[in-house]
Amino acid sequence: MSKIAFVFPGQGSQYVGMCKAFYDQYPVARQLFEEADDALGFSLTKLCFEGPEAELRLTYNTQPAILTASTICGEILKQHGVSADIAAGHSLGEYSALVNAGAMKFADAVRIVRQRGQFMQEAVPVGEGSMSAVMGLDNEKIVEICTKIEAETGMPVQAVNFNCPGQVVIAGATEAVEKANEEMKAAGAKRCIVLHVSAPFHSSMMKPASERLAEVLAPIEIKDAAFPVVANVTAEEVVSGELIKELLVKQAAMPVLWETSVRNMVANGVDTFVEVGPSKVLTGFTKKIAKGVPALFVEDPHSLEKTLEHFQGGK
Question: Whole-prediction pTM value?
Answer without folding.
Answer: 0.96
